[in-house]
Write a structure and sequence with these properties.
The chain is mostly helical and 275 residues long. It is built from 12 helices and 2 strands; from the N terminus they run ααααααααββαααα. Strands 1-2 form a two-stranded antiparallel ribbon. A hairpin with a 2-residue loop joins strand 1 and strand 2. Helix 2 runs antiparallel to helix 5, helix 8 runs antiparallel to helix 9 and helix 9 crosses helix 12. The longest helix has 37 residues. The two termini are 41 Å apart.
Amino acid sequence: MQVWGKILGAFFGFLLGGPFGLLLGLFLGHKFDKARGSVFSGGFSHGGGQQERQAAIFHAAFAVMGHVAKAKGKVTQDEIRVASAIMDRMGLRGESRRQAQDAFREGKEHDFPLDDELYNVRRLCAGRPDLLQFFLEMQITAAFADGNLHPAEREILHRIAEALGFSSAQLEQRLRMQEAAFRFSQGGGGQYQQHGQWQAPPSRDQLADAYQVLGIEDSASAQEVKRAYRKLMSEHHPDKLVAKGLPPEMMEVAKQKTQEIQSAYELIRKEKGIK
């Protein structure tokens, strides 16, 4: 909560005008705090402002996704199928799907203002690092959706990460985690436990991918495993992300991410005998 305007306004108002000046200074300080808070929140508030924020992030996510798809040159049918698959995962239909498709096409244009779009995203997500991280992860997921990451895609992802305030090392870690997540899901990582019973012991590669999904080494202690798991679950909690401005249409992606994290954790927990 912003209070310094009220404090300073009341102090100097009292010095200059006594009790009446104190009241006037308090009022003016309140107005200053309110305006300052609006600026630091990106000019958005609850209600309509939250909806505007969500709509802007939704558009930016698919526009930037289209730009990443164009990084290799001409957008192929594979990239279009990837975008469609992501829209399917979100359950986008009707007007929402049309808006996503329009934004994706906009991002493919040669004069797409990527830096301006990312600046706006960072402004919209000011003070919401989890939301910025989720935005970046969506771009990584889209780039990895075909199982490969082209050098041009990696380069543009580094540019996106930097613009959003992430270091190269942070991006590379997320890339490793997403690559492992892709292999983990392709290998049926989420299907080892059914009805509370483990069907077959996991392979060494499956376990290695599970550790990578959580961003930890296989030598991690039980405490480190739990800490990494809880941190990732907190970062990707759908309700928390929506409260911070995540478009409701993207909630399904967040849910799937938490299921992926849960599956990796359960695999490691069983292997290490973590209670």
